[in-house]
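Fill in residues.
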């Protein structure tokens, strides 16, 4: 005998539930109206409590119980198979727990009776573990590889930085070089890659020494000496007619310095004191192949001096304006100098006094920050010998310490 209570809204609901659960032969043994407890129940609809009984113990199994059971079996099989990665004791835990369960017990017995089960389980366990181990090792290898590549490139970067710093190349340029390294896909050495990048930054002007050429730059960098060297080469070696003009009226003795050279080389020479003089001097030199124009070393910090110089240069009417910078200039002074002279629209740079330094990074620093081509470099006080024209390849080799200045 099975007795069960149902709380329903109406008897129809009670009948269908009882029939479904207790079968066609069930009987209703009691029914009463009840109220939901609490305040909310006071206002709610009344419910009926129905008590029914069934003679047989035929609690009807729903049709889909079989499906449910099959599903449980399937799930258990999957669980058992996937246990291949677990420890044996965990597996037996499941075995014991399934024994207690009526539905699953039968299935468990089947598994128990299967003599090969343990073997298969072990195999599945070991192959599964092996596979996982393999995959993990594979991943470890890949990760190690990645870490190595990362470390190697970090080491390379550090080596490059150390090497370039020793050459007195500015950190900003070193960063630029390191950043560019990856973009070179060719199978060439690190040094060759650096050379390539430096060649891209450091361009050399191939402009001919012809027409009106102005030289500007701080005091004492070697403008006048450089002009003397050029004048000597162009007139004595290249057989060009050369004229010299100076607007260096600030420094005592400055005029004499260039005049001495002009006298020795027998070159026309003009001193310019004001803007009107400049126009006339340029006119007077019209017949010369090359007119080299010297200027006063003006402070790049003094805007008035630079503006005044600009007015003179405008009268010269040339685009060939060269900023002369000494390689002995402190790195931190290079940018202010370049910025100060920018107002003069210089077209290329000349780096002097390379004989006074052992590292040549300053050439690259000056080229990089000015963003202008290098016209040539000077390497000593001897007029006219100590002046060097080099191509970009050779100059970069010098900058990188892989070639000397000779
Ligand atoms: N060591 C060395 N000294 C140089 C070089 N060029 C010029 N000088 C010297 O630097 C000093 C200043 O040169 P100067 O031509 O008067 O510079 P300016 O003020 O720019 O005209 C002089 O003693 C020159 O001999 C160079 O390439 N190397
Ligand atoms: Mg001078």
């Amino acid at each position: 005998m099975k007795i069960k209570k149902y709380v329903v809204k109406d008897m129809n609901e009670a009948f269908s539930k009882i029939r479904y659960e207790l079968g066609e032969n069930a009987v209703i043994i009691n029914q009463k109206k009840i109220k939901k407890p609490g305040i909310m129940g006071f206002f709610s609809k009344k419910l009926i409590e129905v008590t029914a009984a069934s003679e047989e113990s035929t609690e009807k199994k729903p049709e889909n119980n079989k499906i449910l059971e099959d599903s449980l079996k399937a799930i258990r099989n999957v669980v058992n198979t996937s246990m291949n990665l677990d420890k044996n004791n965990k597996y037996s835990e499941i075995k014991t727990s399934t024994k207690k369960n009526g539905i699953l017990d039968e299935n468990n017995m089947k598994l128990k009776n299967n003599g090969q089960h343990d073997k298969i389980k072990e195999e599945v366990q070991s192959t599964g573990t092996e596979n996982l181990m393999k995959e993990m090792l594979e991943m470890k290898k890949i990760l190690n590889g990645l870490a190595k590549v990362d470390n190697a490139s970090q080491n390379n970067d550090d080596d490059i930085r150390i090497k370039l710093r020793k050459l007195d190349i500015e950190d900003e340029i070193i960063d630029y070089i390191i950043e560019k390294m990856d973009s070179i896909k060719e199978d060439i050495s690190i040094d060759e890659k650096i050379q390539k990048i430096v060649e891209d930054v450091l361009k050399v002007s191939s402009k001919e020494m012809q027409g009106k050429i102005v030289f500007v730059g701080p005091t004492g960098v070697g403008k006048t000496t450089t002009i003397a060297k050029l004048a000597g080469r162009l007139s004595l070696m290249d057989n060009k007619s050369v004229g010299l003009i100076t607007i260096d009226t600030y420094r005592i003795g400055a005029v004499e310095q260039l005049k001495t050279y002009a006298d020795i080389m027998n070159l026309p020479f003009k001193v310019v004191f004001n803007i009107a003089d400049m126009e006339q001097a340029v006119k007077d030199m019209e017949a010369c192949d090359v007119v080299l124009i010297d200027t006063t070393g003006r402070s790049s910090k003094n805007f008035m001096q630079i503006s005044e110089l600009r007015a003179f240069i405008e009268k010269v009417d040339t685009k060939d304006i060269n900023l002369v910078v000494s390689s002995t200039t402190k790195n931190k002074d290079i940018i202010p100098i370049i910025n100060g002279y920018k107002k003069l629209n210089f077209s290329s740079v000349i780096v002097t006094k390379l004989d006074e330094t052992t590292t040549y990074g300053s050439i690259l620093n000056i080229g990089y920050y000015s963003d202008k081509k290098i016209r040539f470099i000077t390497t000593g006080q001897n007029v006219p010998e100590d002046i060097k024209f080099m191509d970009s390849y050779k100059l970069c080799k010098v900058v990188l310490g892989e070639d000397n200045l000779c």
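The chain has three domains: 2-54, 65-114, 204-399.
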